[in-house]
Design brief:
Blueprint lengths: L1 H18 L1 E10 L10 E4 L12 E2 L1 E4 L2 E9 L3 E7 L13 E4 L4 E7 L5 E5 L16
Parallel strand pairs: 1-8
Antiparallel strand pairs: 1-5, 2-3, 2-6, 4-5, 6-7, 8-9
C-alpha cells in the first residue's frame, strides 16, 4: 500500500511537469532591416512553430531590426526550429537549426549578421553555444 501511494505521487508529479505550460519567446536581432516586403518566419518541429511548413508562422516586427514571437509550449518539449523567408525559395543561407529543451519560461535571443548568417545565440538557461568563427556571449 505504501509503495503504491509513493508510486502514484511520483507518476502524478512527472505527468504534471511534462504538461505544465511554458512561454518561449524567440527574439531575432538583425544588423540591418529586411527589405520592406520581406518578413521573417519560423518553422519547427512543434505545431506552434508550423510543423516544418514554410510560411505558416510569421514573427512579429517589433522594430526595424527586431522580430519576435511568443510560443506556448509545455515543459519537457524539445524544440528544433529554423528561420526562413516564408517559402523554399527564400531560405536564408547559413542559418542553423536551433534546438532547445523547454524547462521554464524562456527567451531565446538570436543575432543575425546583415548577410543573415547566425553570428551567435544565447539561451538564458546559462548554456552557451559556440558556432564556427564566433565567440560566445559573456
Amino acid at each position: 500500500m505504501k509503495w503504491t501511494f509513493l508510486f502514484t505521487l511520483l507518476l502524478i508529479n512527472s505527468l504534471t511537469y511534462a504538461q505544465s505550460p511554458a512561454f518561449v519567446q524567440i527574439a531575432v536581432y538583425l544588423n540591418e532591416p529586411l527589405p520592406d516586403k520581406q518578413a521573417l518566419y519560423i518553422r519547427g518541429n512543434h505545431g506552434m512553430m508550423g510543423n516544418w511548413e514554410h510560411g505558416k508562422v510569421r514573427l512579429a516586427k517589433k522594430e526595424p531590426q527586431l522580430w519576435s514571437g511568443i510560443f506556448l509550449l509545455s515543459k519537457g518539449d524539445n524544440i528544433s526550429f529554423i528561420l526562413d523567408g516564408g517559402t523554399p525559395q527564400k531560405n536564408f543561407p547559413g542559418v542553423d537549426t536551433f534546438k532547445h529543451s523547454v524547462t521554464k519560461d524562456t527567451t531565446i535571443e538570436i543575432n543575425l549578421e546583415s548577410t543573415l548568417k547566425v553570428s551567435n545565440r544565447s539561451i538564458p538557461s546559462g548554456q552557451k553555444h559556440k558556432l564556427p568563427g564566433t565567440v560566445p556571449n559573456g
